[in-house]
Design goal:
Elements lengths: L1 H12 L4 H12 L25 H10 L15 H13 L5 H4 L7 H7 L13 E2 L2 E2 L6 H4 L4 H5 L6 E6 L2 E10 L4 E5 L6 E5 L4 E5 L5 H5 L4 H12 L4
Antiparallel strand pairs: 1-2, 3-4, 3-7, 4-5, 5-6
Helix pairs in contact: 2-4, 3-4, 6-10
Length: 236
């Protein structure tokens, strides 16, 4: 019942305006540590801030991809309204400048750089959002304000499930939605992968053999101390 309530709450939250919803989907599917920066700035792929593309072209590229440049198409992995939301978000970047899109600097540049280290698998920014950046797969660590390294390692993960699919080994995941598709972040990968299944294709069981300490193992104690300092100095 608790799992169903959490999924229902999340589904209701997703019914926001298309640009805001598109920003969330963009960060999960298209941004660091994948290709574009989380707010459209340059990453492994070109920046989208200030682009001059027409909406039809953006929609075509998003749906079909550009295989010659390594960009996949999302026409078959996103639902129609999700694809539309991503397109609306990208189009909202067309009139902006890098300075307008930039986030204010924080007081701990070292901790921030470690948190969003795109070259490090299992990096914090692959699962968490902070200071307006990153991917909100897991809980808000800035709001948690960890008082010690032990608390940072032991951050509880909500919506944690074990996903079982026929002819495939079970894997730990974070539930995203239950209708019309069952969507979960696959935590068996170093970078969480958003996967979609038809109803009845998989079975979800609340809880999983996975904990946050496994992810923080990618950092040394000194690095975690820098990250904690960065988090506790952020406004709620």
């Amino acid at each position: 019942m608790k799992l169903f309530t959490a999924l229902l709450t999340l589904a209701m939250a997703q019914a926001q305006d298309p640009v805001a919803r598109g920003a969330v989907i963009f960060r999960a599917q298209c941004s660091v540590p994948y290709c574009h920066g989380p707010d459209g700035e340059e990453g492994r792929a070109p920046k989208l801030i200030g682009h001059s593309h027409r909406e039809q072209r953006v929609r075509g590229i998003t749906a079909e991809g550009v295989m010659a440049k390594g960009m996949p198409g999302f026409g078959k992995t996103l639902m129609a309204d999700e694809l539309d939301a991503v397109v609306q978000f990208v189009m909202s970047l067309s009139g902006r400048t890098q300075a307008e899109q930039a986030k204010p600097a924080t007081t701990n540049a070292r901790g921030r750089a470690l948190f969003f280290d795109a070259a490090r698998f299992n990096g914090c920014g692959a699962c968490h959002e902070a200071d307006g950046w990153g991917i909100p797969v897991g809980p808000d660590l800035a709001r948690a304000k960890p008082a010690s390294l032990e608390q940072l390692r032991a951050v509880p993960v909500t919506r944690l499930v074990t996903v079982t699919r026929n002819a495939e080994a079970s894997f730990p995941g974070i539930a995203v939605s239950s209708a019309p598709l069952i969507r979960v972040y696959d935590l068996s990968s170093p970078i969480p992968v958003l996967r979609s299944f038809q109803a009845g294709e998989v079975r979800l069981q609340a809880g999983a053999r996975w904990d946050h300490a496994a992810a923080t193992a990618a950092y040394t104690d000194t690095e975690l101390a820098e990250i904690r300092e960065f988090l506790i100095r952020l406004p709620r």
